[in-house]
From TrEMBL, chain A:
GO terms for cellular component: membrane; plasma membrane. Belongs to the binding-protein-dependent transport system permease family. Residues 1-36 are annotated as: Disordered. This is Binding-protein dependent transport protein. Residues 1-10 have a biased composition (Polar residues). It comes from Streptomyces coelicolor (strain ATCC BAA-471 / A3(2) / M145). It is found in: Cell membrane. GO terms for molecular function: transmembrane transporter activity. Residues 106-301 form the ABC transmembrane type-1 domain. The chain crosses the membrane at residues 41-64, 110-131, 143-163, 175-196, 217-242, 278-301. The lineage of its organism: Bacteria, Bacillati, Actinomycetota, Actinomycetes, Kitasatosporales. It is a multi-pass membrane protein.
Automatic annotation (TrEMBL), chain B:
GO terms for cellular component: plasma membrane. It is found in: Cell membrane. GO terms for biological process: transmembrane transport. Keywords: Cell membrane, Membrane, Sugar transport, Transmembrane, Transmembrane helix, Transport. Residues 1-12 have a biased composition (Low complexity). It comes from Streptomyces lividans 1326. Belongs to the binding-protein-dependent transport system permease family. It is a multi-pass membrane protein. It comes from the Bacteria. This is ABC-type sugar transport system, permease component. Residues 1-21 are annotated as: Disordered. Residues 85-299 form the ABC transmembrane type-1 domain. Its main location: membrane.
Length: 316, 308
């Protein structure tokens, strides 16, 4: 069995910049193309480029639009720059508008992501390790219940959770957003599969024979081996909490506790309310600022999360 | 906040004899315990509470009374609920196959090794997944605008008048486009990851037998990733039935087209938070949850049985 760490990403071919370079493989003039090294196809590349364009054009639109003033947005063509380059003004205004409420939303989001995604990953790692490496009474049924729960619409849970939390006095506090974020059934599943593959049982036995307790075995032996899986789960729980909209929408009344998603939507709707000021340039710039951290995280950590995911699919 | 109480129970075990994995003990609970405790609080308790709520009705006069299954009877006769369910079913029937089809084609193209710049394609097509639904919807909402969006640009540049994507006739397709944009890359990655672990010796064997690309795809690759296909389908079905963010954020732009009972989830939300009908809202949510589970389970059974 190959180590899950060394699957998909290790075969990784050229870095992104490679697309512009024509036919990089010159040393195979008349070589028979094997299953491992088929001939590159221009047609296939062009066809796939259509999907690429579809994926990237809206992001280009967003980046270009963030450089425009409110008037520029309606005056100029969507995918090209307006005469006024207002990116820096927009960024400054985004952070200072309405007493810097955007900064507050950003900090709230960081808080929810830190505690919510961090906690969810921690619980998923512990639980996945248990499911993978221990046999205990009720193990099978726990998993069935958790997987069954995935089918329950999260949005359907939000209303009863709201009513429950409201009785407990937790609504309109950060806890109402953080506590439900702590559970990631997908994270548990991924960690379970990953731990099964990544931790040799013999290694655990060896640690135990050397007299290590269960906690010590977990932290010293298992945890380092689980690192790529942990990064993967952390990234996906981060996306889930960073992008969360419905839960905070239900739980929070006070704009001071809003995460970025709710805040941006409230700015957008401001134009539609009577007497509200239209701030579309800020909605656009704020949106760009909101997506940059996650995109950066995915790009920087791709080696890790892709190997984590590849391990997850072994079981399929 | 995170109380890590568990392994106390496990510690006092005497120096363990050489054990095998299948030895049963309660140690595993120590590690799984925290997850299960929070899970019970945020999943099981709300479900139970929801069932409890669905059996009562709040009246202006007389307060809250036990009504048994009356709320369920009402839900089954509720035209607004069925209309919203019909809408998401139509959405599901059209959007999910398109999205998964594109994702599968891209995954196969990446896996074929015949693309120039494979890694650039893979990461770029995946990126929209990192964009919050709110931002994606706001962005597409602007671009859909016939006045200062891309649609307006195309109309102006080509002298045509494309139909308004936010008109009642087209808004469902426009939402479908947003959801497709958000999740094509994610599903592509699931399929691609599954394809990467297919043993390459199978392809070599097929090549020696003279199998072409198409044959390799249908005879080896697709069966090998059946599990991933089924899981992606189930998650997409659940996602479609839960549709809320995109329509609710587009709603101010398309007031005539999107009503507060546009999807089942939007309907339960509106019932609870605009109408204060918590009990009936809980009932509709449960009915919807049951329908989702039945459909997801049916797909799973069917997907797993075929060809096994």
């Amino acid at each position: 069995m190959t180590s899950p760490v060394a699957t998909a990403s290790d075969r990784s071919a050229p870095p992104p910049s490679d697309t512009s370079r024509p036919a990089p493989r010159l040393r195979t003039p008349r070589r028979r193309h094997s299953a491992d090294r088929p001939r590159r196809s221009v047609l296939l590349t062009v066809l796939t480029s259509l999907v690429l364009l579809y994926s990237l054009v809206p992001l280009v639109w967003l980046a270009v639009s963030a450089t425009k003033t409110q008037e520029g947005l309606s005056r100029s063509a969507g995918l090209w720059f307006d005469g006024d380059f207002a990116l820096w003004d927009n960024i400054t205004e985004t952070f200072t508008y309405d007493d810097g409420v955007f900064t507050r939303w950003l900090l709230n989001t960081l808080l929810y992501v830190g505690l919510g995604a961090g906690g969810a990953t921690f619980l998923a790692v512990l639980g996945g390790y248990a499911l993978a490496k221990f046999d205990f009474p009720g193990r099978r049924s726990v998993f069935a219940v958790v997987i069954g729960a995935v089918a329950v619409p999260g949005t359907a849970l939000a209303v009863p959770t709201f009513l429950m939390f409201s009785k407990m006095g937790l609504t309109n506090t950060p806890w109402a957003v953080i506590i439900p974020s702590l559970i990631s059934p997908f994270g548990l599943y991924l960690m379970w599969v990953f731990a099964t593959e990544a931790i040799p049982t013999e290694l655990m036995e060896a640690a135990r024979i050397d007299g290590a307790g269960e906690l010590r075995t977990f932290f010293r032996v298992a945890l380092p081996l689980l690192a790529p899986g942990i990064v993967t789960v952390l990234l996906f729980t981060m996306v889930a909490t960073w992008n969360n909209y419905f839960l905070p929408l239900v739980m929070l009344k006070d704009p001071d506790w809003y995460p970025l998603t709710l805040g941006l939507n409230s700015w957008n709707q401001q134009a539609a309310t009577a007497g509200g000021e239209a701030v579309f340039n800020l909605v656009v710039t704020g949106s760009l600022i909101t997506i940059l951290p996650l995109i950066a995280a995915f790009l920087l950590l791709q080696k890790y999360w892709q190997s984590g995911l590849a391990a997850g699919s072994v079981k399929e | 906040m995170t109380t890590l109480q568990p392994p106390a129970a496990a510690e006092p075990r005497p120096a363990p004899p050489p054990v095998r994995r299948d030895r049963r003990s309660w140690t595993g609970w120590g590690f799984l315990g925290p997850f299960v405790a929070v899970f019970a609080l945020v999943f099981l308790a709300p479900i139970a509470y929801s069932v409890y709520l669905s059996l009562f009705r709040e009246q202006l006069i007389g307060g809250t009374t036990f009504v048994g299954l009356d709320n369920y009877a009402e839900a089954l006769k509720d035209d607004r609920f069925w209309a919203s369910l019909g809408r998401v079913s139509l959405f599901l029937a059209v959007q999910v196959p398109i999205m998964l089809g594109i994702a599968l084609l891209v995954a196969l193209a990446l896996d074929s090794g015949r693309l120039y710049g494979r890694d650039f394609f893979r990461i770029s097509i995946f990126l929209p997944y990192a964009v919050p639904a709110v931002v994606a919807t706001l962005m597409w909402g602007f671009m859909y605008g016939t006045r200062f969006g891309l649609v307006g640009d195309i109309n102006g540049a080509l002298g045509v008048s494309l139909p308004d994507p936010l008109s009642p006739d087209l808004v469902l397709a426009s939402i479908g486009n947003i959801v497709t944009w958000e999740f094509v890359g994610y599903n592509m990655l699931i399929f691609y990851s599954a394809l990467r672990v297919v043993p390459h010796s199978l392809y070599e064997a097929a090549q020696i037998d003279g199998a072409g690309q198409i044959r390799v795809i249908t005879a080896i690759k697709l069966p090998a990733i059946r599990g991933a296909l089924v899981i992606a389908t189930i998650f997409s079905i659940i996602g479609s039935f839960q549709l809320f963010n995109e329509p609710s954020i587009l709603q101010p732009l398309a007031r005539n087209a999107i009503t507060t009972d546009y999807t089942p989830n939007y309907y339960t939300y509106a019932l609870s938070f605009n109408g204060q009908q918590h009990n009936y809202s809980a009932t509709v949510a449960i009915v919807m949850g049951l329908i989702t589970m039945v459909v997801a389970y049916a797909v799973q059974l069917r997907g797993m049985r075929k060809g096994v």
